[in-house]
């Protein structure tokens, strides 16, 4: 596969790492914000978008659930990427030299035990890969960064310690999005369908809407709610289910759901990542 895949962050960000793992033949295009990632695909500057939706340690990624339905794009694939946090330092530095590290706010608590053990103070940065670039430029003695091994490779830094995260299961789920939905594929590890909906303003509408999935034996792996346009009365739901809309049980469940909703929009039908079912 050729073309470009857009991601949010500086070169060497974990989203960049995800692009290299899931789309090794595509050119990775860094963007400053998630909105710019989406716009790059919508406007033709990139062919696909790599967007993180949730992490096994710190939960869902802020704003993504709001952006996906408004993006005009469709989910083509999902990718489960293991987050391996490295301590990076200037060339020739030793672990014992490091007194302070900079990293994205979410990485610091994930490496809290390691930092405490080595007496290192953590400082929040807007972007871990950006912090790596700044360290390479300013060359501040005694300073390190928490980032990916890819960032060390890009910015010429040394990896002083690997896999320093507190939890070995630390994994981020990404969705890969494109301009056209593809309903023809079938995955070796099953299929996933992602959609958003708003329930009708009737008593027990959500309970009744969910009943169709239970009675038809369709497994719902995610259901999250969020406000629409800042209103406390307009709630939209984001859902992932196992299966394809052409499967009879899924078709019946979606038909029942449609009866209790004002709005139902399928965001993607795509093969399940094999790591989804890993123990």
* Alpha-carbon Rg, integer: 21 Å
The biggest beta sheet reads: 6 strands, mixed
Low-confidence stretches: none
How many domains make up the 3D coordinates? 3
**Number of helical elements:** 9
Mean pLDDT: 92
Structure, explained:
The strands form 3 sheets. Strands 1, 2, 3, 4, 5 and 11 form a 6-stranded mixed sheet that branches. The chain has a 5-stranded mixed sheet with strand order 8-7-9-6-10. The protein is of the alpha/beta class. A hairpin with a 2-residue loop joins strand 13 (220-228) and strand 14. The protein has helices spanning 14-22, 34-42, 64-70, 107-110, 112-117, 128-138, 149-155, 205-215, 248-259, and strands spanning 4-8, 27-31, 48-55, 59-60, 74-82, 86-89, 100-104, 121-125, 143-147, 158-161, 171-178, 191-199, 220-228, 231-242, 261-271. It has 3 domains: 4-82 and 170-178, 3-Layer(aba) Sandwich (D-Maltodextrin-Binding Protein, domain 2); 86-161, 3-Layer(aba) Sandwich (D-Maltodextrin-Binding Protein, domain 2); 191-271, ACT domain (Alpha-Beta Plaits, 2-Layer Sandwich). This is prephenate dehydratase. It catalyses: prephenate + H(+) = 3-phenylpyruvate + CO2 + H2O. One of its GO terms (molecular function) is prephenate dehydratase activity.
Write the SSE topology:
Layout: E1 4-8, H1 14-22, E2 27-31, H2 34-42, E3 48-55, E4 59-60, H3 64-70, E5 74-82, E6 86-89, E7 100-104, H4 107-110, H5 112-117, E8 121-125, H6 128-138, E9 143-147, H7 149-155, E10 158-161, E11 171-178, E12 191-199, H8 205-215, E13 220-228, E14 231-242, H9 248-259, E15 261-271
Parallel strand pairs: 1-2, 1-3, 7-8, 7-9
Antiparallel strand pairs: 3-4, 3-11, 5-11, 6-9, 6-10, 12-14, 12-15, 13-14
Helix pairs in contact: 8-9
């Amino acid at each position: 596969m050729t073309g470009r895949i857009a991601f949010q962050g500086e070169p060497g960000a974990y989203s960049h790492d995800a692009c290299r793992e899931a789309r090794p033949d595509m050119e990775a295009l860094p963007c400053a914000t998630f909105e710019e990632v989406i716009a790059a695909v919508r406007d033709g500057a990139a062919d696909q978008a790599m967007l993180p939706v949730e992490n096994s340690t710190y939960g869902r990624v802020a704003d993504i659930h709001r952006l996906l339905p408004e993006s005009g794009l469709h989910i083509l694939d999902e990718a489960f990427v293991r987050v391996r946090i490295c301590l990076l330092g200037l060339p020739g530095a030793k672990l014992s030299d490091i007194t302070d590290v900079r990293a994205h706010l979410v990485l610091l608590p994930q490496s809290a035990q390691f930092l405490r053990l080595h007496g290192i103070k953590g400082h929040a940065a807007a972007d871990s890969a950006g912090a790596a670039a700044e360290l390479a430029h300013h060359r501040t003695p005694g300073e390190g960064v928490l980032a990916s091994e890819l960032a060390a490779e890009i910015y010429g830094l040394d990896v002083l310690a690997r896999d320093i995260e507190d939890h070995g299961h630390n994994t981020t789920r990404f969705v890969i999005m494109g301009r056209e939905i593809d309903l023809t594929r079938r995955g070796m590890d099953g299929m996933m369908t992602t959609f958003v909906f708003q329930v009708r303003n009737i008593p027990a509408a959500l309970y009744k809407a969910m009943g169709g999935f239970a009675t038809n034996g369709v497994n719902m792996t995610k259901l999250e709610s969020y406000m629409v346009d800042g209103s406390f009365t307009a709630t939209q739901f984001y859902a992932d289910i196992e299966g394809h809309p052409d499967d009879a049980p899924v078709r019946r469940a979606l038909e029942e759901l449609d009866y209790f909703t004002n709005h139902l929009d399928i965001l993607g039908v795509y093969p399940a990542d094999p790591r989804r079912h890993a123990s």
